[in-house]
Design a protein that fits this description.
Layout: H1 2-16, H2 21-28, H3 32-44, E1 49-52, E2 58-61, H4 74-83, H5 86-91, H6 95-108, H7 111-123, H8 141-150, E3 152-159, E4 166-179, E5 182-188, E6 193-197, E7 201-210, H9 219-234, E8 237-244, H10 245-254, H11 257-266, E9 268-270, E10 273-280, H12 283-291, E11 297-301, H13 303-320
Antiparallel strand pairs: 1-2, 3-4, 3-7, 4-5, 5-6, 8-10, 8-11, 9-10
Length: 324
């Protein structure tokens, strides 16, 4: 265990450069005192590692030093072949590069690990898009990805869901995120960092002007916070409904995960029915969602939602109960 940690510490310094003892401790999930002992062990082994004190200090490898620790465990080699998503890589223009890298990695592995890695690729396949959705066309994805990589300003014409629908923006592209088969651009505009659906970009120009990324910007952390904020803004209301036993059983497959979780957590058995409280986006959206359940659901509150569902059912009845 300790040998593995020493290797990890060395590779962290090689890839990230100068790091404080506290940062290393956080990465490796150990105490700062343990980091001090590990650094002493690396010194004793002849690793050219030195540290500077002070607020801007930290540990660093001697310039030009590169470790030759290239060995992979069997599990690590297998996981590398499971991690690749050939579809998204091809969309980014990296399909050939990924294939070439995998071939080189396969050739470098010992024969026993090569066989295990090949079996992993043969037996597991990752399909990112969600069910019932066609793959989105994003004709400008490669251009956007290139601007992200080279830190070049983008001028985009973007179609929004609200007026004015067509807008032009000059953006600092900070990163791309693939979510349920859809590509999203995280970019800094004139005043804040926002998210743009790449398929909604109507035209794009990569400018010659470069930009500096915000200090300490973490794409994964920003995306996680954005998702939480989106869900908090998405659900602005609440509804009390009751479901038949059959309706309750199938409810989670008909709604979004947040609604399904709320239903499960609030479920109260009421004889032949189950009473639940769920979050709602709007009266109109909730009406459409609940009408899909047919006679397996009844709206109890709020009155406005019950009235909308009743009106929709009456309209359907007026159509289907007319003599043919």
């Amino acid at each position: 265990m300790r040998a593995s940690r020493l290797v990890s510490l060395l590779l962290l310094l090689q890839t990230k450069g100068r790091m404080t003892a506290q940062a290393l401790a956080d990465e490796l999930e150990v105490s700062v005192r343990t980091i001090y002992r590990d650094v002493e062990s690396l010194h004793a082994a002849g690793v050219p590692l030195y540290g500077d004190a002070g607020p801007a200090g930290g540990y660093q490898l001697l310039d030009g030093y590169r470790t030759r620790l290239t060995g992979l465990t069997e599990q690590e080699a297998e996981s590398l072949f499971l991690a690749g998503l050939p579809g998204p890589a091809a969309e980014l223009g990296l399909g050939d590069a990924v294939s070439a890298a995998q071939l080189k990695l396969m050739a470098a592995l010992p024969s026993s690990m090569r066989d295990r890695a090949a079996r992993m690729a043969e037996r597991f396949h990752l399909d990112a898009p969600a069910w019932y959705y066609d793959a989105e066309r994003a004709p400008f994805l490669e251009l956007v990805a290139d601007a992200v990589w080279r830190e070049r300003l983008l001028e985009v014409s973007y179609r929004r869901w609200q007026a004015p629908e067509e807008v032009t923006r000059t953006l600092r592209p900070l990163g791309l995120v693939l979510k349920a088969g859809r590509w999203y651009l995280v970019a800094q505009g004139a005043s804040r960092i926002s998210t743009y659906r790449v398929s909604q970009i109507q035209a794009v120009t990569v400018l010659d002007e470069s930009f500096e990324r915000p200090p300490g910007f973490d794409l994964a952390a920003h995306w996680a916070v954005s998702l939480e904020d989106f869900q908090a803004r998405q659900y602005t209301g609440e509804a009390v409904i009751r479901l038949s036993a059959r309706g309750f059983e199938s409810f989670s497959s008909q709604v979004l995960p947040a609604v399904a979780r709320a239903a499960e957590q609030s479920a109260v058995d009421d004889g032949e029915w189950v009473r639940v409280t769920i979050p709602t986006e709007s009266i109109g959206h909730a009406t459409g969602m609940l009408l899909r359940m047919g006679g397996e659901v009844e709206v109890l509150a709020p009155p406005e939602l019950r009235e909308h569902v009743t009106a929709a059912v009456r309209r359907l009845a007026s159509i289907y109960l007319q003599p043919s």
